[in-house]
């Protein structure tokens, strides 16, 4: 009898254990299925609509289609606040508790701008969700805003046309895809109008993301020894082996303006001038990667002893422009309209230099993603346009890091690389000192 009761108890316990284990297993499988379904949906790649516009230089300029407009209050200056390289890869990092959100809000509070520009490398990885959130933040601010793309924006879960579609859902967004047959996505212009007159034009260009081929013999090299004391940022990148041993290569392998973009810039200016009673307005170019001439401007500036009247800010890393000039700056000088070119891309630079009458500026990096300089370079930069449409002031605006910082695996990786690099450099310098080459 006792044996039978015990046997019954054991079998009940076994049955119960098996059922609990089965339920847990089924629960786990279901949870996993839901998780992967969500993850698949989140990562699913989106394609956007292509711009229907095919442009020819022979086209007639149409002010209604070819340029956007913002109105300027004649009683006050017009302030443009530029945020480069938000470069956020997960949308939760744009939340109210985090640094990026607070940086944007605090810089806006500090500068009271009339318009915001996003200078590219806005997002990657979960780029679709990040751009949706960026659009939401910009629309909450409620000012006209104009983004360009950088070299990282295409690396996420949507093509640039899809990200453009997301931006354009924002009622205050001025982004336009521009002609389909131009290089890049989002080449467009915005006129600032005051009392019905165009007083200033803003150009937005996509400097692209891919490497390209070029004539290596046209690439410039500078002797590292000439820059050792003047520019540690450039010095660290010198080439030690091969034909260019001990030299620094100018430029990187992307970021060249294409011939058609330059023609489009000239065509837009001509059309806008015609529309403006023959008067070509002053203008500003916003793009992600610095045009090649940033190098010439920088070398001229350090060569003159860093004249504070002409330049300010920091150059902590080498300029990542294209390796050769493709003519945008020549067109700028020829047209005589553009007085400011404002870029992002190098998160650690905020140098602004006047060169041949044009101010070439790096805007202050926005937020703490992918930078080792967040403590000192966090915020944005402003360009102030006066009643006559002149860009009278360019300023860097730093705000303190406020909010939660997300542990950034990528930064950890960069730091490790940097440590390796530093060790390598110490060795090279010690060797050179031994050989009397330092
Ligand atoms: Fe970039």
Summary keywords:
single chain; 438 residues; alpha/beta; Purple Acid Phosphatase, chain A, domain 2; 2 domains; eight-stranded mixed β-sheet; five-stranded mixed β-sheet; 11 helices; 35% helix; binds fe (ii) ion
What does this entry look like structurally?
Helix content is 35%, strand content 18%. With 438 residues, it is of the alpha/beta class. It folds into two domains: 2-42; 63-212 and 253-407, Metallo-dependent phosphatases (Purple Acid Phosphatase, chain A, domain 2), CATH 3.60.21.10. A hairpin with a 5-residue loop joins strand 14 (379-385) and strand 15. Helix 4 (127-141) packs parallel to helix 5. The longest helix is centred in the first third of the chain and has 42 residues, at 2-43. The chain is globular, with a radius of gyration of 27 Å. It binds fe (ii) ion (FE2).
């Amino acid at each position: 009898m006792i044996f039978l009761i015990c046997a019954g108890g054991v079998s009940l316990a076994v049955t119960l254990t098996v059922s609990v284990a089965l339920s847990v297993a089924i629960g786990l499988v279901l949870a996993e299925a839901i998780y992967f379904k969500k993850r698949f949906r989140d990562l699913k790649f989106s394609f956007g609509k292509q711009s229907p516009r095919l442009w020819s230089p022979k086209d007639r300029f149409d002010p209604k289609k070819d340029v956007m407009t913002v109105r300027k209050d004649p009683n006050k200056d017009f302030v443009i606040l530029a945020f480069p390289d938000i470069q956020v890869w997960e949308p939760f990092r744009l939340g109210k508790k985090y640094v990026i959100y607070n940086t944007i809000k605090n810089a806006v509070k500090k500068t009271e701008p009339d318009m915001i520009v996003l200078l590219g490398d806005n997002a990657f990885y979960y780029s679709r969700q990040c751009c949706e959130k960026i659009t939401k933040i910009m629309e909450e601010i409620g000012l006209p805003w104009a983004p360009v793309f950088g070299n990282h924006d295409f690396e996420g879960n949507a093509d640039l046309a899809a990200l453009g579609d997301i931006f354009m859902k924002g009622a205050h967004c001025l982004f336009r895809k521009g002609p389909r047959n131009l290089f890049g996505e989002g080449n467009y212009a915005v006129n600032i109008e005051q009392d019905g007159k165009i007083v200033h034009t803003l150009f937005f260009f996509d400097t692209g993301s891919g490497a390209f081929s070029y004539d290596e013999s046209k690439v410039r090299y500078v002797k590292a020894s000439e820059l050792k004391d003047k520019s540690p940022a450039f010095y660290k990148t010198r080439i030690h082996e091969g034909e260019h041993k001990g030299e620094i290569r100018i430029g990187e392998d992307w970021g060249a303006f294409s011939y058609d973009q330059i023609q489009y810039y000239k065509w837009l200016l001509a059309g806008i001038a015609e529309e403006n009673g023959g008067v070509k307005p002053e203008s500003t170019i916003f793009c992600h990667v610095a045009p090649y001439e940033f190098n010439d401007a920088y070398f001229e500036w350090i060569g003159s002893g860093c004249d504070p009247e002409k330049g300010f800010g920091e150059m902590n890393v080498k300029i990542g422009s294209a390796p050769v000039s493709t003519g945008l700056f020549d067109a700028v000088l020829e047209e005589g309209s553009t007085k400011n070119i404002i870029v992002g891309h190098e998160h650690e630079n905020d140098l602004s230099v006047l060169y041949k009458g044009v101010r070439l500026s790096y805007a202050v990096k926005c937020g703490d993603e992918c930078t080792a300089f967040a403590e000192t370079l966090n915020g944005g930069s402003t360009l102030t346009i006066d009643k006559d449409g002149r860009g009278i002031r360019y300023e860097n605006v730093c705000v303190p890091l406020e909010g939660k910082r997300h542990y950034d695996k990528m930064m950890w990786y960069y730091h490790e690389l940097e440590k390796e690099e530093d060790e390598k450099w110490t060795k090279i310098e010690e060797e050179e000192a031994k050989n009397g080459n330092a």
